[in-house]
Amino acid sequence: NIWCWVLGAIGVTLLFFVCVDERLFSDASLQVFYFGMSIYGWLQWRQVGEGGVLKVTSLPLVRHLLLLTVGLIGTFLLGRFWSLFDAALPYVDAFTTSFSIIATYLVAMKVIENWGYWIVIDLICVFVYLERGLPLIAILFSIYTALAIYGWMSWRRQENHLSI
Questions:
Q1: In this model, does residue 143 exceed pLDDT 60?
Q2: Full-prediction pTM beyond 0.90?
Q3: By the number of CB atoms within 10 A of the CB, which of 51, 115, 125, 133 ranks highest?
C-alpha cells in the first residue's frame, strides 16, 4: 500500500532518536536515509505501469551477487568508521545498515527479492535490540520479520497473477 511510505516516514523519525540514544550510529543514519527513501518510494509507487499498477519484478542471480558484494564492502567500511566513535556493535550495526539501504531501494523498485533481504536484516535487528536492552523494539522487528514473510508471499501471488 502506497500509504505505508507515509507511515514509514513517521516511524523512522521516532526510531532515529532511540538509535542515537543507544549509540547505534549506523542505524540512526539509516533512519535519515529511510526518511528520504519514504519520499522516493511514495513518488515511485505513484507511477503506474501496465494495468495501472507498478509491476513486481525479479532480479537475476548475478545482480544479487553484485548487491551482496556491495553490501559486504559497505559493512566493512561503515564498521571501521563507527568503531572510531565507540559505537555499540559497529560491524553488526553496519551490516544491517548496508543491507537495509540495498533492500529499501529494491522495495521502491518493487523487486520481489527485497523481502528475503528484509527477513535476514530484521532477524539480526531483533538480536541487536535485545542485546541493547530494548525489548519493545526487538518485538517491533519481530513483527517486521513476520510482515516481510507476508510481503514476500503477497508479492509472489501478485507477480504470478500479473504474469498470467
A1: yes
A2: no
A3: 125
